[in-house]
Write a structure and sequence with these properties.
Layout lengths: L13 E10 L3 H4 L4 E2 L22 E2 L4 E9 L4 E6 L5 H16 L7 H10 L9 H22 L3 H4 L7 E7 L6 H13 L4 E5 L5 H15 L4 E5 L6 H13 L4 E3 L7 H10 L3 E4 L6 H9 L5 E2 L8 H13 L4 E4 L6 H12 L4 E7 L20 E3 L12 H6 L4
Parallel strand pairs: 6-7, 6-13, 7-8, 8-9, 9-10, 10-11, 11-12, 12-13
Antiparallel strand pairs: 1-4, 2-3, 4-5, 6-14
The chain binds magnesium ion.
């Protein structure tokens, strides 16, 4: 038995491994700092976020940024991937090039599973099984699938054994507006655009205000679209149950991330106490993390982000674990490039237990505008690209404008 598996046989070899920091506006990189969103705590003890305060709130960059991965085969064929990198994308770039690069150079690009295990194993016993390491692996994995599809001349969803569907139901993520009236108008606009589901963000202020907004939007779209609610891990146990019961009465389809992600017991309790679906999982990464939550019935719908959770390969394994528990997954797709959208779309097209696709309603300077052809939902459905690999192509000139390093 050869110890050099993955390094024998005919065909292309990986000749170059590169990663790029992609930003909306390169000027900000040198100057502007991190913006930390804060919860607006009030003096009212029961219906505010005072118990948790700012501890759970994510840091956000001043604008969209991500890390692209480019693999080049020795015949010149290129595969693109994306590693989710909302903060510190230069760290992700370093992991791709310095940690994963030596594993990949000279290897057979079709040996995707083997290379995934090698990349994961490279830092596993040191505890690096999520975070920047797995986000970097995600980017490389997606680039490997893109490269394989291009080398073989078929779209990724066919390599994965699909499609179950090529028109993916999508929801509008984020209902913008400074007032309830503006949010109701935005929700009606999504219905006019063909969406049959949309997501409202709550949990960063007064609970009564959040519930009033949810009630108004729910009434405005009742019978025409499902309302999803994202609480961003904001609540204590008692507040989550309080809010959940009222959202349930409004007919809300799912309540996303009501609690801090580490509180698995809390999720088990809440999921049992509410008939409404509890959705979570953008925080979870590898299949083991999802397996624990699924086996304990801590969640009704999981939300893996394949640019964070190990790419298309691990995303498929996570979907399989979910299928053991009759659970569906919805694609978490936050602000990044269209590589993220396309990669999630291919997995969704080829997955039996896919539910719905997230598409951000926020204008995105590093989104589809960098492609040669648009990639967004039409009439509430996203059509999976049909070309080889990811089936998308960058306009190299427009891409170059946004590469910061
Ligand atoms: Mg979310």
């Amino acid at each position: 038995m050869s110890a050099k598996t993955g390094e024998a046989g005919p065909g292309a070899r990986i000749a170059a491994v590169e990663a790029f920091v992609l930003v909306g506006d390169k000027d900000y990189v040198a100057g502007a700092g991190l913006r930390v969103a804060t919860g607006a705590a009030t003096a009212r003890p029961r219906r505010t976020l005072a118990e948790i305060g700012d501890l759970h709130i994510c840091g956000y960059p001043p604008q969209a940024q991500t890390c692209l991965v480019k693999l080049t085969a020795d015949d010149g064929t290129v595969g693109w991937g994306e590693a989710h990198a909302p903060l510190g994308p230069r760290a992700t770039k370093a992991v791709v090039e310095d940690v994963l690069g030596p594993i990949l150079l000279g290897a057979d690009p079709l040996a995707i599973d083997l290379l995934w295990e090698r990349m994961y194993g490279s830092m596993r016993l040191r505890g690096h099984s999520t975070g920047y390491q797995l986000e970097a692996i995600s980017g490389v994995d997606i680039a490997l699938w893109d490269l394989a599809g291009k080398l073989l001349g078929v779209p990724i969803y066919r390599l994965l054994g699909g499609p179950y569907r090529v028109e993916l139901p999508a929801y509008a993520s984020g209902i913008p507006g400074a007032t309830i009236a503006e949010r109701v108008a935005a929700a009606r606009g999504f219905i006019d655009a063909g969406y049959t589901a949309m997501k409202l963000s709550i949990g960063r202020g007064d609970i009564d205000s959040d519930l009033a907004t949810a009630a108004a939007v729910a009434a405005a779209i009742q019978g025409e679209a499902d309302l999803l609610i994202d609480a961003h891990g904001a609540y204590t146990a008692e507040n989550a149950l309080y809010v959940g019961r009222r959202l349930q009465d409004l007919g809300v389809y799912w309540l996303e991330d009501p609690l801090t992600p580490e509180d698995v017991d809390g999720y088990v309790h809440l999921t049992a106490a509410l008939e409404m679906a509890i959705a979570a999982g953008e925080t979870e990464c590898n299949r083991w993390q999802f397996a624990e939550r699924l086996a304990r019935r801590a969640v009704d719908v999981i939300l893996p982000d394949i640019c964070r959770a190990g790419g298309i390969s691990e995303g498929r394994r996570i979907a399989t674990v979910a299928s053991l528990h009759a659970t569906k997954w919805a694609a978490h797709v936050s602000m990044g490039s269209s590589v993220h959208v396309a990669a999630a779309a291919h997995l969704a097209a080829a997955s039996a237990n896919f539910l719905i696709f997230e598409f951000s309603s926020t204008p995105n300077p590093i989104g589809e505008g960098l492609l040669t052809a648009p990639l967004h939902p039409e009439g509430g459905f996203l059509r999976v690209p049909d070309g080889p690999g990811l089936g998308i192509a960058f306009d190299e000139e427009r891409l170059r404008v946004h590469i910061a390093g």
